[in-house]
Amino acid sequence: MAALEKLNENDVPDDGRRFAVVGVHQWNELLELDEFVSADYVGGSTPLIDGCESRKWLGVNWILCNSLPLANTDDRDCFIYHASSIGHACGQEVKTDITWHGERAAHFISNSMSQGAVLIDNEGIVRIKCDDDAA
Q1: What pLDDT digit, counting tens, does each position of 118-129 carry?
Q2: Greatest CA span in the chain, whole angstroms?
Q3: Which residues contact residue 104 at a Cβ distance below 8 angstroms, ignoring those fewer than 6 apart?
Q4: Exposure of 15 in the CB half-sphere (CA atoms within 13 A)
Q5: In this structure, are residues 52 and 61 in contact, taking their beta carbons and an 8 Å threshold?
Q6: What angle is formed at CA 129 by the lines to CA 115 and CA 2, rounded to 5 degrees?
Q7: How far apart are CA 67 and CA 65, in angstroms?
Q8: pLDDT per residue over 94-113, tens digit each?
Q9: Mean pLDDT, the chain, integer
Q10: Structural domain total, the chain
Q11: Is there a domain that residue 15 lies in?
Q12: Helical ranges in 10-135 per DSSP H
């Protein structure tokens, strides 16, 4: 797989923190591979990301995502990356506002926060252009 070769060329660690995010069409194509489906190759479920469709195969945590960008009407951008190549920023901690509404005899509770993500290392992420044509 060329994307994994690119990560290896860039000396990205193969330490279990590699992730691949693919669309529904690509996930369905992966499900046609015996090596991707069989527990002999992928093992049990990944406890770290329970609650979503995922598999660990070829040292990569594969995750199904419905919201990956479409370049054209049938070209989807999928990604393989190392966890250390992206970062999480907290612009504002969780802020809570509690007010009493007497006419409703109830408290109104509002929580807000500001967070974001940033690319730290360009060499730790590979974009894969995939044909998303269902035909």
Answers
A1: 899 999 999 999
A2: 65
A3: none
A4: 8
A5: no
A6: 105
A7: 6
A8: 999 999 999 999 999 999 99
A9: 86
A10: 1
A11: yes
A12: 24-30, 34-37, 39-42
* Helix/strand number for the chain, H first, E second: 4, 7
Cα distance between residue 9 and residue 30, in whole Å: 24
Comparing CA positions, the residue from 68, 118, 81 lying closest to residue 6 is 81
30-46 as b/e: b if 16+ CB within 10 A = beeeeebeeeeebeeee
Please answer whether residues 102 and 95 qualify as being in contact, where contact means their C-beta atoms are separated by less than 8 angstroms.
Answer: no
97, part of any domain: no
**Which residue type occupies 95?**
K
Cα distances from 57 to residues 37, 42, 48, 70, 97, in angstroms, run 9, 5, 15, 25, 45
For residue 17, give its domain range: 2-88+118-131
**Residue type at position 65:** C
Which residues in 7-85 belong to E strands, given as ranges? 18-22, 54-57, 60-64, 75-82
Tokens of 80: 């393989």
| Dist. CA 110–CA 98, nearest whole Å | 7
